[in-house]
Specification:
Shape: flat
Radius of gyration: 21 Å
Strand order of the largest sheet: 1-6-7-8
Order of helices and strands: EHEEHEHEHEEHEHEHHEEHHH
Length: about 400
């Protein structure tokens, strides 16, 4: 366990951030294909800039999903986010589509055939993490960074704060004492706003969203509360900066509190272990902590393209574990089939549940009735305790 005092910082970005606009479009395209065919294969990237949207990638799915349909999906995403600005408008932006059929070389490695089970869609390493810093078993800094922006977005969408724009960022620095978060030492929020709204007005709009999200007594000193520190944020979104799918992988996961394998999630169907195995690793780590077998747990999985079984399963409970980590790894593998097919079936991932993951984090969210965020369930705890008793 960490001793003494230290500071740790995480950031989040809103659904209107240029990179998150791209993640939303790419994941909505995944949902479109999985709605039509649960076995569809999708790897689609998006680029956005001033009044321009570019789609590229490879797919295998129904021919009824045409480039015109993909354009319709992309424009609907931009409209839902709220972009009707001169520099980026859901209806007026030019759109180019370069999506083509999946490579046969990739398909033959991934597809099940004869006695060969479905293989991983790529090589790679994936990490999952859980800790007791919040009720959601997430690191506190990223949890509160997300929550601030979600609160602002809800106010914007409801019409309660019409002066706010879609693009925003947050950053929360927490003080830890002996490994436990105690208070915020600084908070940074930058949010796009209408030209008619002054910097001081933006500051006072933002303040209650921060104060209400942080636990009682955690609000930072006023001199360390930074809102739009450049002084103006009227031009934002893809008109201010180009965006690309998959550039906010630390925001998507644990805010830097845990390792990341490097692979992005958005735009990929669940045969891609970059996505599905990262979800499985979080699922396992969360159940370990929920079962009170550790206070903190990091799990690493590794895969080779075309191979169904994981090459390694590594567990680190950071000195907080109640059982031997080797026994824990064995018990988890007995309870959950960690092949790509096993993960997909256990977590029900071949469903159109991905657009909702594209902003405010893939982890720490409540499991939903239709299978969304299934990797946040804690339904293994009793079986795990029994296996290790």
């Amino acid at each position: 366990m960490l001793k003494g005092k230290h500071l740790f910082t995480s950031e989040s970005v809103s659904e209107g951030h240029p990179d998150k606009v791209c993640d939303r479009i790419s994941d909505a395209i995944v949902d479109t294909y999985l709605t039509a065919d649960p076995n569809a294969r999708v790897a689609v990237e998006t680029l956005v800039t001033t009044n321009r949207i570019v789609l590229a990638g490879e797919v295998r799915g129904p021919e009824s999903i045409t480039p015109a349909r993909l354009e319709e999906v992309a424009r609907h995403c931009v409209k839902e986010i709220g972009y009707e600005q001169d520099g980026f408008h859901w209806q007026k932006a030019e759109l180019s589509c370069y999506v083509h059929s999946q490579s046969g070389d990739i398909a033959q490695g991934v597809d099940a055939a004869g006695n060969k089970d479905e293989g991983a869609g790529d090589q790679g390493i994936m990490f999952g993490y859980a800790c007791r810093e919040t009720e959601e078993l997430m690191p506190a800094a990223i949890h509160y960074s997300h929550a601030i922006l979600r609160s602002l977005a809800e106010a914007r969408h409801s019409g309660a704060e019409p002066g706010l724009g879609p693009d925003s960022k947050s950053q929360v620095t927490l003080e830890y004492i002996d490994g436990t978060p105690m208070r915020a030492t600084s908070v940074v929020v930058s949010t796009q706003h209408a030209e008619s709204v002054s910097q001081e007005e933006v500051r006072e709009i933002v303040r209650p969203h921060v104060a209400n999200v942080l636990p009682d007594g955690w609000m930072c000193p006023d001199k360390e509360f930074y809102v739009n520190p450049t002084g103006r944020f009227v031009i934002g979104g893809p008109d201010g900066d180009a965006g690309l799918t998959g550039r906010k992988i630390i925001v998507d996961t644990y805010g830097g509190a845990a390792p990341h394998g490097g692979g992005a999630f958005s735009g990929k169907d669940p045969t891609k272990v970059d996505r599905s195995a990262a979800y499985a690793a979080r699922y396992l780590a969360k159940n370990v902590v929920a079962a009170e077998l550790a206070t903190r747990c990091t799990i690493q999985l590794s895969y080779a393209i075309g191979v169904s079984k994981p090459l390694s399963v590594y567990i680190d409970t950071h000195g907080t574990g109640e059982v031997d980590e080797t026994r824990l790894a064995e018990a988890l593998q007995d309870l959950v089939d960690l092949s790509p097919r096993g993960i997909r079936e256990h977590l029900g991932l071949s469903r159109p549940i991905y657009a909702r993951t594209s902003a405010y984090g893939h982890f720490g969210r409540a499991p939903e009735a239709d299978g969304g965020f299934s990797w946040e369930r804690t339904d293994l705890t009793e079986s795990l305790r029994a296996a290790l008793s």
